[in-house]
């Protein structure tokens, strides 16, 4: 075995521990087996996850057909008709919008912290941002319910709705009746919650850009921002993209705050101010009350789709990072 | 002259005739860059002390000396690179064509365009193509006309002796070319913005001998376009490429002379000791 | 010949220095300033958002923090409405049980996987292990809750602290494994060499020389995983479910439904009772304390380690 040292008989008397070959070889074998066993359980965990979702979701998938379930727009537990499209749509809309909304501010914080702020301030900013990522989703949710929703209702939803009511009634079907719990609220909260991931990875990537790159740009006669734009940010783009994808992945799976703020509306079409749902939110909102086997199975199937989408995002993230990180090729 | 030092020369130093001719030509050129009492403080330490040098138009001046002597510190003061580092103070005067580049109100960004710099490690912008690297400085200044950019790119790459090697792959990533080519690309980048002075900080120390030689040949040609100040720890290189040499030691300029004189008949004892390899 | 200076104009600067100034220089500096403004704006907004959330939690929840809060159990809504003693003592106990169980399950497995990945890099199990571990890391916690529901709650026929603990273990596991691997990889080879040169068998080298050297990093990883899991509500909603009362006897915490802070916070927040909302905020304070404490501890400990490494 690599690394073994054949101790000579004189030395072994000096080393107090028994160097009986059985001790060594058996010990190593036992240890490795233990590690492998425990390591296998992680693999088993991953396999079991897919297995359970498929096994328990099978009833619904067989009943409605894999593709039809995916694209089905009706979700009616009472009548026993289930289609996952509203939730897939809700997840995509909220996640994409949240990423779009949060990307530039998050990158801005990263740039400011990594390049412009004095060291003490950067430390504070980084701490605050990291803490933001650690706040439990339910806590953000309760804040959303009692602080954000009333505020948005008073300052945005109701005013816009009333305006549309009198001046543009044809827009009402899109605007929707405002309850405060809707896609807009959920998207805003999501955007806030995923900022730290983009910021953390971007700022690390920016800090890693070699000083020589900045100096080369400056020596060419670039201003501070031009140096960032020309030399630093492109160099760091791998990390920045990784951060954005990580944020997106988190947005897709974000459950509690969204469930508490999106209004639990299962019917398409979604309106701006009316209730909506995402894949995680519908599972949370309906799982415990689901009585029918078909209902439960459908929720499991939604979970399966959530798994696939999450997996896809992770794979894309890994591929993108490989493609864009500087230093992948010989430099 | 110490015979051991002779043996250490890779190529023979210029002959007395060549040296004299070079010195004569150089002496006729007008003075472009002057420093008077230039001092650089790092906190409480002194990087360079009271340096007063003159650099003539379209000549090559080498700054030599043991490591830590301040030659790079001095070089970086010439294009206000120390502005970017906290805690560094530059005092004294550095004038380009008679105007102090450190005077209040002078824009460092403009100074750096006129006084370009090439670093020890070649630094192309790796996410850009060769072409984009060359014209990067031009785009900063606001020139977007494709025809002008193309023309300047070709001219700069020719001046940097890189055109023939890359003309068919201008859009290829700059990270894909060799170290020596990358260094010539960095030179082309500075030439593209019509830098009048080129500061070179040990430009060949990370290159192989063949690329080194090519860059040294390039310096000979570049002389017709720009004034060059080159920091080098390689004395043979200094002897090969420069018209003038200044010897730095522990922050002071010990001696400055035309290269031929400096290497064959230095006045100061310490200069002689350094050149003959007794220290450094 | 086109000249780069064709677009420039000569201007006399204040020092008399004839600046060859590009026409757009003023515009470039203006752009610099505008960008800086937006950067500061973004940073201030984000900081403000966080402070707002934390601030509201503390302000709204502090009034409900009392001795009763930490000792009484919840009971029915009428208890709170009528002002009788009520609290989340049972929730805190339940959280300790469920999270503790999760740690108990996740740490050995996670550390073991980390050791396998780092110390036996050529083992054939490693590539699938690493890929699947990273995949699990990125999976929403709710899916892990569904798994625990399917393999424990369904056969058992009841919600239980056991299933909750297992669900949280699923959440913690990939984090611990990755952190452990990361920390072990950094340990210099010389430490292993020293152990091997002494004639120690490989397993002793790992356990007695490498792991102790990395113990700070491993503890940090565990703490981070714990803080993450402690805040998760989704996987607990259909495993440990919730309980308004103390459970009778320790065993009941494992075999019956158990209250946990995040799940309880959720129910309190969506309930129609004002008094319960106040306790929800207070539960938020406790959760934030757990999170902030873990974070500060991790930072302090890591910084200390770096200091002594020098």
Entry keywords:
heterotrimer, A: 331 residues, mainly alpha, MetI-like fold, two-stranded antiparallel sheet, 14 helices, B: alpha/beta, Rossmann fold, four-stranded antiparallel sheet, 12 helices, 40% helix
Give the SSE map:
The complex is a heterotrimer of chains A (331), B (280) and C (310).
Chain A: H1 9-14, H2 21-64, H3 66-71, E1 75-76, E2 81-82, H4 85-116, H5 119-134, H6 137-167, H7 172-175, H8 183-208, H9 211-219, H10 224-235, H11 237-253, H12 256-261, H13 279-287, H14 293-324
Antiparallel strand pairs in A: 1-2
Helix pairs in contact in A: 2-14, 4-5, 4-8, 4-11, 4-13, 5-8, 8-11, 9-10, 11-14, 13-14
Chain B: H1 3-8, H2 16-28, E1 31-42, E2 45-56, E3 60-64, H3 71-77, E4 88-96, E5 99-100, H4 108-114, E6 115-118, H5 130-141, H6 146-159, H7 163-166, H8 179-192, E7 197-201, H9 209-222, E8 227-231, H10 235-241, E9 244-249, E10 252-258, H11 259-264, H12 269-275
Parallel strand pairs in B: 3-8, 3-9, 6-7, 7-8
Antiparallel strand pairs in B: 1-2, 1-4, 4-5, 9-10
Chain C: E1 8-12, E2 18-22, H1 25-61, H2 67-71, H3 77-81, H4 89-119, H5 126-137, H6 141-156, H7 161-186, H8 189-197, H9 202-213, H10 215-230, H11 234-237, H12 250-255, H13 261-270, H14 274-309
Antiparallel strand pairs in C: 1-2
**Element-by-element helix/strand order of chain A:** HHHEEHHHHHHHHHHH
Any low-confidence stretches of chain A, pLDDT <50, length ≥5? Answer: 1-5
CATH domain class name of the largest domain in chain A: Mainly Alpha
Q: In sequence order, what are the helices and strands of chain B, one letter per element?
A: HHEEEHEEHEHHHHEHEHEEHH
Main sheet of chain A?
2 strands, antiparallel
Structural class, judged by helices and strands of chain B?
alpha/beta
Number of helices of chain A: 14
């Amino acid at each position: 075995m690599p690394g073994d040292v054949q101790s000579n008989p004189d030395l072994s008397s000096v080393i107090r521990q028994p160097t009986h070959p059985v001790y060594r070889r058996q010990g190593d074998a036992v240890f490795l087996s233990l590690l492998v066993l425990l390591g296998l359980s992680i693999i088993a965990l991953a396999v079991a996850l897919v297995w359970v979702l498929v096994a328990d979701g099978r009833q619904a998938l067989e009943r409605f057909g894999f593709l039809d379930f995916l694209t089905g727009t009706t979700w009616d537990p009472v009548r026993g008709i289930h289609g996952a499209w509203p939730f897939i749509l809700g997840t995509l809309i909220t996640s994409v919008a949240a990423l779009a909304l949060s990307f530039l501010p998050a990158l801005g914080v990263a740039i400011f912290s990594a390049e412009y702020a004095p060291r003490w301030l950067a430390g504070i900013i980084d701490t605050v941002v990291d803490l933001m990522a650690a706040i439990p989703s339910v806590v953000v949710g309760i804040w959303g319910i009692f602080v954000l929703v009333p505020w948005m209702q008073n300052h945005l939803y109701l005013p816009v709705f009333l305006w549309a009511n009198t001046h543009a009634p044809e827009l009402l079907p899109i605007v929707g009746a405002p309850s405060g719990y809707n896609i807009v609220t959920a998207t805003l909260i999501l955007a806030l919650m995923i900022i730290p991931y983009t910021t953390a990875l971007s700022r690390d990537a920016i800090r890693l850009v070699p000083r020589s790159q900045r100096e080369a740009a400056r020596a060419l006669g670039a201003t501070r921002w031009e140096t960032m734009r020309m030399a630093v940010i492109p160099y760091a783009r791998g990390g920045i993209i990784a951060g954005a994808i990580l944020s997106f992945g988190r947005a897709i799976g974000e459950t509690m705050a969204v469930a508490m703020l999106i209004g639990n509306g299962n019917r398409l079409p979604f309106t701006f101010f009316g209730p909506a749902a995402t894949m995680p939110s519908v599972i949370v909102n309906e799982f415990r009350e689901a009585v029918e086997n078909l209902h439960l199975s459908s929720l499991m199937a939604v979970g399966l789709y959530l798994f696939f989408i999450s997996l896809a995002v992770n794979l894309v993230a890994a591929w993108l990072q490989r493609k864009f990180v500087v230093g992948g090729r010989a430099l | 002259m110490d015979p051991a030092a002779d043996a250490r020369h890779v190529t023979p130093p210029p002959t007395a005739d060549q040296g004299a001719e070079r010195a004569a030509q150089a002496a006729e050129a007008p003075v472009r860059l002057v420093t008077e009492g230039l001092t650089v403080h790092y906190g409480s330490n002194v990087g360079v002390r009271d340096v007063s040098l003159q650099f003539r138009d379209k000549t090559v001046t080498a700054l030599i000396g043991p490591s830590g002597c301040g030659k790079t510190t001095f070089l970086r003061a010439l294009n206000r690179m120390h502005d970017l580092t906290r805690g560094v103070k530059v005092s004294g005067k550095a004038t380009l064509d008679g105007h102090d580049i450190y005077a209040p109100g002078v824009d460092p960004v403009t100074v750096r365009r006129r006084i370009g710099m090439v670093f020890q490690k070649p630094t192309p912008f790796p996410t850009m193509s060769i072409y984009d690297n060359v014209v990067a400085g031009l785009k900063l200044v606001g020139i977007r006309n494709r025809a002008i950019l193309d023309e300047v790119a070709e001219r700069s790459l020719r001046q940097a002796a890189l055109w023939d090697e890359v003309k068919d792959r201008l859009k290829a990533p700059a990270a894909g070319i060799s170290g020596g080519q990358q260094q010539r690309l960095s030179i082309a980048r500075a030439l593209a913005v019509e830098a009048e002075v080129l500061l070179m900080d040990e430009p060949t120390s990370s290159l192989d001998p063949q690329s080194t030689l090519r860059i040294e040949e390039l310096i000979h040609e570049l002389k017709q376009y720009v004034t060059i100040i080159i920091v080098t720890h390689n004395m043979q290189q200094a002897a090969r490429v420069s018209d003038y040499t200044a010897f730095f030691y522990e922050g002071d300029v010990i001696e400055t002379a035309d290269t031929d004189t400096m290497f064959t008949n230095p006045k100061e004892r310490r200069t002689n000791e350094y050149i003959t390899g007794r220290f450094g | 010949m086109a000249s780069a200076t064709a677009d420039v104009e000569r201007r006399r600067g204040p020092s008399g220095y004839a600046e060859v100034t590009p026409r757009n220089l003023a515009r470039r500096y203006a752009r610099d300033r505008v960008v800086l403004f937006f950067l500061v704006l973004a940073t201030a907004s984000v900081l403000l958002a966080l402070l707002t959330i934390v601030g509201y939690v503390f302000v709204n929840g502090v009034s409900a923090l009392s001795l009763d809060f930490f000792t009484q159990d919840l009971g029915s809504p009428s208890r709170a409405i009528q002002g009788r003693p009520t609290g989340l003592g049972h929730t805190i106990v339940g959280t300790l049980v469920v999270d503790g169980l999760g740690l108990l399950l996740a740490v050995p497995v996670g550390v073991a996987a980390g050791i396998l990945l780092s110390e036996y890099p050529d083992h054939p199990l490693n590539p699938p292990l690493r890929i699947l571990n990273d995949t699990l890391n990125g999976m929403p916690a709710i899916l892990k809750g569904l798994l625990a529901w399917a393999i424990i709650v369904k056969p058992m026929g009841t919600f239980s602290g056991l299933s909750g603990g297992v669900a949280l273990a699923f959440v913690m596991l990939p984090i611990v494994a990755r952190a452990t691997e990361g920390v072990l990889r950094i340990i210099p080879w010389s430490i292993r060499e020293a152990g091997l040169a002494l004639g120690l068998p490989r397993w002793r080298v790992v356990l007695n020389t490498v792991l102790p050297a990395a113990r700070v990093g491993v503890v940090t990883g565990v703490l981070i995983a714990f803080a993450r899991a402690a805040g998760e509500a989704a996987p607990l909603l259909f495993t440990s479910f919730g309980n308004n009362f103390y459970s009778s006897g320790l065993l009941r915490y494992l075999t019956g439904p158990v209250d946990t802070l995040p799940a309880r916070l959720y129910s309190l927040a969506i309930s129609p009772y004002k008094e319960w909302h106040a306790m929800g905020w207070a539960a938020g304070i406790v959760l934030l304390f757990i999170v902030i404490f873990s974070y500060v501890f991790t930072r302090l400990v890591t910084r200390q380690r770096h200091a002594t490494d020098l």
